[in-house]
Amino acid sequence: MKLYLLSDNVDTLTGMRLAGVDGIVAHTADEVLSAMKHVLEDSSIGILLVTKKLYLEFSEKLLEILAEHSTPLIVQIPDRHGAEGSGNAIAAYIKEATGIQI
C-alpha cells in the first residue's frame, strides 16, 4: 500500500518526496480531478494525503468522487502554513488515522 500526496504547494510535496511519498501539486478543480483519476487508476495507492488548504477548498468534490470507491483513505494533513506542531505532525496524523507508523 502506497501513500500519495495531493498538495496545494511545492514545499510540502518536496518534503514528502524526500520521505519517499510521491504526489502532485494542484490548484484548480481540473487539476484535482486529473489527480483523482490517477489515484483511482493506481490500485497500489491506499492512502491519499491531502493538504488542509486543498482539502477545505475541494472537500465536497473529493468526497463525492471517493464515495463510489472503497480506497484510498483520505487523510487531511497540515501543510507548511499549518501551526499544528513539528515535522512529526504528519506522521502522527497518519498513525492516528490508519494505525500505520511511518
UniProtKB/TrEMBL annotation:
The keyword Ion transport applies. Keywords: Ion transport, Transport. The keyword Ion transport applies. Pfam families: ATP-synt_F. InterPro entries: ATPase_V1-cplx_f_g_su, ATPase_V1_fsu_sf. GO terms for molecular function: proton-transporting ATPase activity, rotational mechanism. Transmembrane segments: none annotated. Belongs to the V-ATPase F subunit family. This is V-type ATP synthase subunit F. It comes from Congzhengia minquanensis.
